[in-house]
Amino acid sequence: MKKVLTVGVFDFFHIGHLNVLRTAKSVGDYLIVAVHDDKQNSKGVKFLYSLEERMYFVSSIKCVDEVIKYERVDEIVQKVDFDVFAFGPDQNHQYFQLAFDWCRENGKDLVMVDRTEGISSTRIREILANKSI
């Protein structure tokens, strides 16, 4: 069985997230999704949903087999049993670079998953910020 690991925040869950999860699952048999527990608030935004709520959303998706939490991507790749690390093109900061290096050194496949054009959590935040609700 080929296990796939992917990671994300999943706060404003949208079609792009669903597409990433479905594509990640398609490269293996078992999908593990690590949801970011951003205790340090490195994204600099106020989350709409708690970690537990975001994990619940993700666990409800049909293609997801397991949901875990993580704080740093370079650490979670060393703690989870997986064969393929699926990631998005925007997931490239220093901790991702360390995670990629660890994967290469330990025989893990790396698969970049395309973004869904026109949608992102940042875009949703921008739209909501400009609305009078």
Automatic annotation (TrEMBL):
Is Transferase set as a keyword in this record? yes
**Keywords assigned:** Nucleotidyltransferase, Transferase
Instruction: Supply the name of the protein.
Output: Adenylyltransferase/cytidyltransferase family protein
Instruction: Note the NCBIfam families from the entry.
Output: cyt_tran_rel
Can you provide one Gene Ontology molecular function annotated for this UniProt record?
Answer: nucleotidyltransferase activity
Q: In what residue span(s) does the Cytidyltransferase-like domain sit?
A: 5-126
| InterPro entries cross-referenced by the UniProt entry | Archaeal_FAD_synthase, Cyt_trans-like, Rossmann-like_a/b/a_fold
Signal sequence annotation: none
UniProt key word Transmembrane helix: no
